């Protein structure tokens, strides 16, 4: 998939990008470099996850999410850089997996259950042959997963007040990035052929930022086991209450 402009309304829409500078090593140097924003985002999410406590709003493990977000960046560098024959699965699978992860997490929150890994891994695996054998159909399937992720995230935000602000901010960043990316396509009003300006690169940075903003919300509403510190008040009864001396 050459260009994935924005998740909510244009996921999977491909087409000619605005022609920019190129080199022998990197087909689209600016987009390749800004793809690293997702790798940085993954690192930020992983660092933040180490400070999270289970049992809180958004208190589930985010290690997998951090790796998926970083994987988006690696796959995007491959596609915008050397462009090997396997660029489509390298680019699309981490993206599809991240979307499925967000959708699965929101569904778990709405159901009041813990997120289960296969809720997002199985749909991603099912997309692999589609992406490889029928790229256009794979693009449309990713658009469907993106739409489901957005709808479920919004529904979760409505039911969990603590998730509303970050969900709205993340969707806002995606919308702005998608709009800039769309208007910067070939023939668009923001397309400046041959310049370092690249609207798709703006999309990279804003989408990566949106995934970081959304991270603390993941796990909101889900059933989670209380941490030892949280169990202490109820589990450690005083000698007076138990009759012990």
Would you kindly provide a written description of the structure presented here, covering whatever features stand out?
- This protein is mainly α and 245 residues long.
- The chain has one domain (8-15, 24-222).
- It is built from eleven helices and no strands.
- It has helices at 7-10, 29-34, 36-49, 63-80, 87-111, 117-133, 135-159, 164-183, 199-214, 228-235, 239-242.
- α4 packs antiparallel against α5.
Low-confidence stretches: 1-15, 54-58, 225-245
The averaged pLDDT comes out at: 85
* SSE pattern: HHHHHHHHHHH
What fraction of the residues are assigned to beta strands by DSSP? under 5%
Major sheet characteristics? none
Number of strands: 0
Please give the count of helices. Answer: 11
How many domains is the backbone divided into? 1
- Gyration radius, in Å: 20 Å
Based on CA inertia axes, which overall geometry fits?
A: globular
Helix content: 55-70%
**N- and C-termini, Cα separation:** 70 Å
Q: Given the helix and strand composition, which structural class is it?
A: mainly alpha
List the topology elements.
Blueprint: H1 7-10, H2 29-34, H3 36-49, H4 63-80, H5 87-111, H6 117-133, H7 135-159, H8 164-183, H9 199-214, H10 228-235, H11 239-242
Quick summary:
This protein has helices at 7-10, 29-34, 36-49, 63-80, 87-111, 117-133, 135-159, 164-183, 199-214, 228-235, 239-242.
Core attributes:
245 residues, mainly alpha, globular, disordered C terminus
